[in-house]
Write a structure and sequence with these properties.
Elements: H1 2-18, E1 28-34, H2 39-54, E2 63-69, H3 74-86, E3 91-95, H4 97-106, E4 112-117, E5 136-140, H5 145-155, E6 161-167, H6 171-186, E7 190-196, H7 202-209, E8 215-218, H8 222-225, H9 228-237, E9 241-244, E10 256-259, H10 262-277, E11 289-290, E12 295-298, H11 300-305, H12 312-315
Parallel strand pairs: 1-2, 1-3, 3-4, 4-5, 5-11, 6-7, 6-8, 8-9, 9-10
Antiparallel strand pairs: 10-12
Helix pairs in contact: 2-10, 3-4, 5-6, 7-9
């Protein structure tokens, strides 16, 4: 009899591990890790939660969220991920590459859905975008790098050297920079790449860089994005402009941006989470998704301050 009871207990533990949603209170536990507080990332989180509501998962009713912001600190990402594993979350939403990597390091069992990641393969999160073969899937925020770089000489044909500024704590901007450098050289221009590791470094670095290049490209990178007003100010003081790979950055001081609506990225991630929670699929078999249409946004105030004439050929892309 004791053996049967012991076997029953072991079987229960196995079932809870395989089907973590089997909770006494009937609620799925979702842990959300976000690298920093930032409008784009906040929108991704909001889109995820809002879309799950439309799919029948309401906070406090049949799903329960715990959200932690890492403050740009990689060690915080890992601590949060480890805590979620200890608390046996049913699913982790990781917003940004460092958060996804921390979650993947913490568990091979709990499903992880991630967004605000540019290249899942490059980050070591999946075996391939077509079939992850890991417990990670998600939605990429890879913007059209070629279009962004081609935009720079269209806005100022006198540009000879393009600066690139990003933080070195994330593989996503590194991958974007690689593509940008290839394109810059392809169109016959020079590049100067500079990295930072913390937010407080950005202003001084951007002030120096603004004197050394003719324009600046900033990849999708939450550290530099958080400092876009300071970066823009440094370049405006030198009568130069900044372009970005996030549409929202045009409202933060960039002259132009090609990017995606992060709220929509969050909604797409919610559909992946829905399939997992419903037991219809597992991350190992779920293709990494991409948004198809990037938006071109121009900051008229910056454009006018610099006296830039916007060519008719790019006006057709404006939203």
């Amino acid at each position: 009899m004791k053996i049967l009871k012991k076997l029953s207990y072991v079987l229960l533990l196995i079932l809870l591990a395989v089907f973590p949603g089997c909770r006494k209170d009937g609620r799925f536990k979702i842990g959300i890790i976000q690298i920093v507080e930032h409008e784009s990332l906040d929108n991704a989180r909001r889109g995820f939660i809002d879309e799950l509501v439309s799919l029948g998962y309401e906070d406090g009713k049949n799903v329960e969220y715990e959200t932690e912001i890492a403050g740009g600190d990689l060690s915080n990402c890992q601590q949060i991920a480890d805590k979620y594993v200890d608390n046996r979350k049913d699913l982790i939403l990781a917003i940004s590459t460092p958060c996804a990597q921390a979650a993947a390091n913490a568990t091979r069992d709990i499903p992880i859905v991630s967004t605000a990641v540019t290249n899942f393969e490059e980050a070591g999160l999946v075996k391939s975008h077509e079939k992850p073969n890991t417990n990670v899937t998600g939605v990429s925020d890879l913007a059209p790098i070629d279009k962004i770089i081609e935009l720079i000489p269209k806005l100022n044909p006198e540009v000879k050297k393009i600066g690139i500024l990003y933080s070195n704590i994330d593989t996503s901007p590194q991958y974007q920079t690689k593509l940008a450098v290839e394109k810059i050289r392809e169109i016959g221009l020079e590049e100067k790449t500079v990295t930072v590791s913390q937010i407080h470094e950005v202003q001084q670095v951007s002030e120096k860089l603004a004197q050394e290049v003719d324009a600046l490209y900033v990849p999708i990178d939450k550290i530099t994005a958080s400092s876009m007003p300071q970066i823009s100010h440094a370049f405006l003081n030198n009568k130069k402009f900044v372009v970005c790979a996030e549409d929202i950055m045009a409202s933060k001081g960039a002259a132009a941006a090609y990017g995606f609506n992060y709220y929509e990225l969050g909604k797409m991630a919610a559909h992946q989470a829905f399939e997992i929670l419903e037991g219809k699929n597992i991350p190992q078999n779920m293709q990494v998704k991409y948004l198809k249409d990037a938006n071109l946004i121009l900051n008229d105030e910056i454009i006018n301050k610099l006296g830039i004439t916007v060519p008719k050929e790019i006006k057709g892309d404006l939203q």
